[in-house]
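Exercise 3.2. Students should predict the tertiary structure of the chain below and write it as structure tokens, then compare their answer with the key that follows.

Predict this chain's 3D structure.
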Amino acid sequence: MPSSSPRWVITLRDAIKREHGLGWSVREMSGRIQLTRRFDDGTRSSVTLDLPWSPASTTSALSQIKELRERMESAGLSIKEAQQLVSSPVARGEGRIDWELVMQRFEKYKVLDSGDVRPSTFERLYRPVLNQVREVVRTRPIPRDGRSVLAALRDTYGGAPGSPGRRLRIMYAAQLLRYAVGQMGAPARWGPPDDLVPLIGRRDAAQKNPATPLKDEQLARLLEGIPDPRWRFAVQLMATFGLRPVELRYLRVSGQKLRVEYQKRTSRGMTKPRELSGLDPLGMPGLAQRLIGRLAIGDALPPLGNSDATTATALATYLKRRPQWSSLRQEIAATGGKLSVYSCRHGFALRAAQLYGLSPRVTAALMGHSLQTHVNHYGHWTDADTLDEAVAAAIQRTQSLHARAMT
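Answer key:
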């Protein structure tokens, strides 16, 4: 018996079967096209397309069915979930995105739905980036995909390759783009590239300009210029035990040793708490044990703020008010260096190599970071004075060994 369906319906059903196989079917539902997906276990699920049941809808129906299937398979969605994305109001005309709607929903998702970000953090870190995205998507040439949005951010707002500002700008914008595609149904071309490194750039070691290590004679001068015993205590601890400023908050005495419970988050995971070994600065014998004794009896450290993030700032603020600190900063800057609160920690690494003859691997373990990190940060101190001192110390040690061997 001939089919009673109109010719255009037969053509549409044949095209669906040819492109998608068995399990997909269409029929009329209240004057519109209803799409049904039948699964191997006999269950089925249906959605009604926003298309009239008419020959003029054939091409649009095939296009929507193709997009629905791709969404279902790529993201593991049900047919109803896929339709929510496909029919999302984010699209506003061909090739255009309702960025205001995307940003509103993205903020709600980050702050209220997932709780990934506190409102204050969103305002401080994400809001400026969203404002920058808002500008670049309105500026000619208008970006036509996710990569061009990120490239426009890079070119418009700058930042040295690999710098923290540029890295965070690209990363936060990429999160917005992923949300637009994954949660709001924007076309896939608006997603960010898998590899963001070409857009962020790689930071050259020379650009990092790390703090210059504080030499022991400079440390002695600095300590003399610190009148408050609490702040002098903090600087002595950082310099003698190679501490990060924040680790001052996590010190405890264990027997005759000092231990730091702080765990730093790195790209490789969390660092482990570690037992500390002090290296007395030149001309300050016994300082490490005296500092441990002071901590054991509860000697007070200075006020370091209310959180980990404020510790280095509190130290820097106090030291910048000391004339001796300003004098040392000018002295170090004159040789192309930079003085910061981390100079005390870096001075520990320099002392470990020059005065104590410790290997980079041992020193890295004492300081609580990897050998690669140690080499990257501390392997370039090769000014003339440092080289001369290192060679002189090595010659002296060798001469002592020769003398013992001859006796």
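Discussion points: The CA atoms of residues 255 and 296 lie 9 Å apart. Residues 91-95 have pLDDT under 50 and may be disordered.
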